[in-house]
Amino acid sequence: MAIQNTPVEVVRWQGSQNPTLSAITRLMNKDGLTPYHWQGTPNSRQAVRSNNYHRVIYITAGTLEVTLPDVNQSVRLRVGDRIAIPAGIRHGLICGSTGSECLEAARKRA
């Protein structure tokens, strides 16, 4: 699933149970990524920015809203969901009302 008219890719978790931290870590390692864990406090925000690398984020607890101000769109992610944000795409993050925990990895530009 892509967000309309953007190269941002969202993959919703399809399993019947929420994935474990170790299961998501294995998925990321299999994709050649080395993830790190971060968490955000309830309703906290990361300012709009762009990165010089491809950003891959899996949600491991709570919810996370990703805003794309240049196309006036946002997407709410839940446990197990994955978003891939290409380098150069401006985006902001808003943690849900119970906070967010994520595994994130960077894939450098080719």
Query: CATH homologous superfamily - what is it?
Result: Jelly Rolls
Q: Poorly predicted ranges (pLDDT <50, ≥5 residues)? A: none
> Strand percentage, roughly?
over 45%
The helix/strand series, from N terminus to C terminus, equals: EHEEEEEE
Q: How many beta-strand segments?
A: 7
Number of domains: 1
Question: Briefly, what CATH class?
Answer: Mainly Beta
Radius of gyration from CA coordinates:
13 Å
Q: What characterizes the major β-sheet?
A: 7 strands, antiparallel
**Helical content (DSSP H or I, runs of 4+):** under 10%
**What distance lies between the first and last C-alpha atoms, to the nearest angstrom?**
23 Å
CATH structural fold name:
Jelly Rolls
CATH architecture classification name: Sandwich
Give a description of the structure.
By secondary structure, this protein is mainly beta. The protein has a single domain, classed as Jelly Rolls, CATH 2.60.120. It is built from 1 helix and 7 strands; from the N terminus they run E-H-E-E-E-E-E-E. The protein has one helix spanning 21-30, and strands at 9-11, 36-40, 45-49, 53-68, 73-77, 82-85, 91-108. Strands 1, 2, 3, 4, 5, 6 and 7 form a 7-stranded antiparallel sheet that branches. A hairpin with a 4-residue loop joins strand 4 and strand 5 (73-77). It is globular and about 35 Å long. The model has no long low-confidence stretch (mean pLDDT 92).
